[in-house]
Amino acid sequence: MTDLTPESNSQHRDGRRPFLTDVGLGFGALALGAMLQDSSNAEDESPQAHFTPRAKSVIWIFLSGGYSHVETFDPKPALNQYAGMTYDKTPFDNPANSPLHRKRFRSVPAEEINVRDVYPIIYPMQVGWKKHGQAGIEVTDWLPHMARCVDDLCIVRNMWTTDNDHAAENQIHTGRHRLDETQPSIGSWAHYGLGSLNENLPRFVVLGGPTNTTTRPSIDSYYLGPSHSGVPLELDPKNPLPFGQRVNGQTAEQQRLEYELIRDLNEKSLAAYPGDRELQARIKAYELAFRMQSAVPEAVDLSTETESIQQMYGLNQDATKVAGQRLLTARRLVERGVRFVQVYPSGYGVWDSHQKLKENHERLCGTVDLPVAGLIQDLKQRGLLEETIVVFCTEFGRTPGLEQRGGGKDGRDHHPNGFSIWLTGAGIRRGLVHGETDELGYNALGDGHYVTDLHATVLHLLGVDNRKLEIPGRRRLDIDHGKVMHEILT
After folding, report:
1. Facing residues of 58 across strands?
2. Contact at 8 Å (CB) between 357 and 412?
3. CA angle, corner 129, sides to 128 and 132, nearest 5?
4. For range 226-239, the mean pLDDT
5. Which of 14, 156, 233, 442 lies at a 20 to 30 A Cα distance from 124?
6. What are the beta bridge partners of residue 65?
7. Prior bond to 217 cis, omega within 30?
8. Is 471 helix (H, G, I), strand (E, B) or coil?
9. From the CB of residue 158, how many other CB atoms can be counted at a distance below 10 Å?
10. Crossing angle for the helix pair 252-272 and 277-299, nearest 10 degrees?
11. Reduced to 3 states, what is the DSSP secondary structure of residue 453?
């Protein structure tokens, strides 16, 4: 691992670090530790936008576990027509024999023992579908509220990835397979590449995640430095920053005086060592942490929203309340200048329907459909959709074939070869379907779009050239940069 910290002043820095990090502010948890330990980039030394941006902020909605593309945004009537047959009995070329299959399938287990993704018995769609909107875009009946918003959506049906297991949750955020070196997440690149719109709030906020200890890479910044990692927030206005509470018995005035003392001592050190980027970053981190204590509780206080807005997000219904709270908070955060909000409306792996797909997906769609549609409508009515990008995605699709492991009879396995996501907002063409999978929903046709194409497109709309985000000593691969999906841009 390459150390990006300047070598100069290292001895005095090591001697000073214990005071700076152990001064006893009551911020013992990881989140503040990350803010205080950034020794790679002072906040004001990040690159700025490379060209005029189309968007200011991103709301990135991620559904963990892999929703079925053929039961959501890419219905396939052929699955019903040829249900129960094997691929080679249909009039179509066997998609498992396509060169695209091997290109987009990188299994960790040995190939000879891994049957994933190639189940040959066609499993019918478990839900009906209709055409919606002026363009007649197909959406399944499990998503009636999003279907009514389809004229605002750009559905990309030819996404693909390579990890066929749940490390794909990290891959869609970092661009790397788990067998390769980990890269910073898309939110961290956005944080690194852009300045702040609100000095009292983090640039990169995470709501509802990371969903599991194994999914920390999805919000991590790695060699960009910890200050560029996502900051998880709780939706309790009384305690949104568990790491940012005052010590028991300490008054606000006492804490303010403590911060002032630390600032004075740090500034004296900075005067002696003006080139110390680590100290510059630490001073900024302490200042942000103090400001956040008042700004963050206000931002997550949903009680100030009208009853009609709360109903729009489904806060009055048990099934939709959690997702609705997180998405409404996301709107409030971008409204206040947060650059990147990564939202997990549901828990880790819950969309992973190896069995009982119909039961699971019907219930889960009911938890997110209304709140997501509410977010779109709310952003539109406030004029925020013209400056915000909304991304709705998952880690992979699900197999057109019936999963047969363990005697399976009503589910689908993981499917990296082709799946669907959608975008809306600033700079995005609306009422559009881009790309396609084959007749059975197996392979993304043509070149398709690897997950970093989505990264490149989002960063492009934010005014950032992904290929210019290079760090000395860190060579990124061509696939890490991705390609902007110009076809979906206005």
Report:
1. 340, 389
2. yes
3. 160
4. 87
5. 156
6. none
7. no
8. strand
9. 21
10. 160
11. helix
122-160 pLDDT per residue, tens? 999 999 999 999 999 999 999 999 999 999 999 999 999
- Two tokens at 456? 């490149």
**Residue 279 has which token pair?**
């100290």
Q: What is the CATH number of domain 57-235+302-488?
A: 3.40.720
Domain-wise residue ranges, the chain? 10-38+247-293, 57-235+302-488
Give the integer Cα–Cα distance in Å for 453 and 432. Answer: 17
What tens digit of pLDDT does each residue of 408-429 get? 999 999 999 999 999 999 999 9
295 and 233 Cβ atoms separated by less than 8 Å:
no
**Strand (E) or helix (H) holding 18:** helix 10-21
pLDDT tens digits, 279-327: 666 666 667 777 787 788 899 999 999 999 999 999 999 999 999 999 9
Q: Are strands 137-140 and 419-425 parallel, antiparallel or unpaired?
A: unpaired
The residues pairing with 205 across neighbouring beta strands, listed in sequence order, are 231, 341
To the nearest 5 percent, what fractions of the chain are helix, strand and coil?
A: 40, 15, 45
User: Who contacts 80 (Cβ-Cβ below 8 Å, separation ≥6)?
Assistant: 124, 125
Torsions phi, psi for 186 (to 5 deg) = -60, -40
C-alpha 259/C-alpha 288 separation (Å) is 11
